[in-house]
Structure prediction request, 46 residues.
Amino acid sequence: MIKSRQSRREKDYRETLNDAQFAIAVLAIASGTLISFIILATLWFV
Prediction:
């Protein structure tokens, strides 16, 4: 019984960690894209 609770907690923790890693990756890609777009637009118009 205790093992099933612990394994459920570990599963929830792993899912949360995977969601957090995915969110960080998406934010990093979006930020990089935005920064590169701004740099390219600035260099193009100057």
